[in-house]
Amino acid sequence: MTDVLSAEQRAYCMSQIKGANTEPELSLRKALWILGLRYRIKNKLPGRPDIIYPTSKVAIFVDGCFWHKCPKHYTPPKTRAKFWEEKISKNVERDKKNNALLECQGWKVIRFWEHEIKDSLDDCVEVVVRTLESRQIKS
């Protein structure tokens, strides 16, 4: 199947795909902020988590269903199938590696699929709240 867009049009479309501050990520951040759960978004941790709680060492990722191969929603593209399979598989492997690196450094990693946040934001917030409560520093 041939691409219906020109190379320039395709390049433009691809350049518009956000890597940060996506709608699901912003929804989760807003819900956490409303509860008074202050977080950090700028960090140099492995995998660059979307949200971190440095004191509790909790790292949160919001994974796109396409880019991280969601078992519920991922559909491989029909064009350039080999290229996309390799690219997406590398993303999945990198996610596993970054999880392991963070956990070795004492971080608790939480990963949400974008559809989980869209479908059940309250449940996702509850997971974060429970995790933060369980990792509170006890004096």
Please provide a written account of the structure.
It is a single chain. With 139 residues, the protein is mostly helical. It is 47% helix and 11% strand. It has a single domain, classed as 3-Layer(aba) Sandwich (Endonuclease, Chain A), CATH 3.40.960. The protein has a three-stranded mixed sheet with strand order 1-2-3, sandwiched between helices. A hairpin with a 4-residue loop joins strand 1 and strand 2. Helix 2 packs across helix 5. The chain starts with 6 loop residues before the first helix and ends in a 5-residue tail after the last helix.
Write the layout of secondary structure elements.
Elements lengths: L6 H9 L7 H12 L16 E3 L4 E6 L17 H24 L3 E6 H6 L1 H14 L5
Parallel strand pairs: 2-3
Antiparallel strand pairs: 1-2
Helix pairs in contact: 2-5
Quick summary:
This protein has 5 helices and 3 strands. It has 139 residues and is mostly helical.
**Model regions low in confidence, pLDDT < 50 over at least 5 residues:** none
Number of helices: 5
Name of the top-level CATH class: Alpha Beta
Q: Shape from CA axes?
A: elongated
Indicate the CATH architecture: 3-Layer(aba) Sandwich
The biggest beta sheet reads:
3 strands, mixed
| Number of strand elements | 3
SS-based structural class? mainly alpha
C-alpha termini separation? 63 Å
Proportion of residues in extended strands: 5-15%
With strands numbered from the N-terminus, the spatial order across the biggest sheet is 1-2-3
Using the CA coordinates, give the radius of gyration: 17 Å
Number of domains: 1
CATH overall fold name: Endonuclease, Chain A
Q: Look at the structure and give the mean pLDDT.
A: 90
Query: What sequence of helices (H) and strands (E) makes up the elements?
Result: HHEEHEHH
CATH superfamily: VSR Endonuclease
> Helix fraction?
40-55%
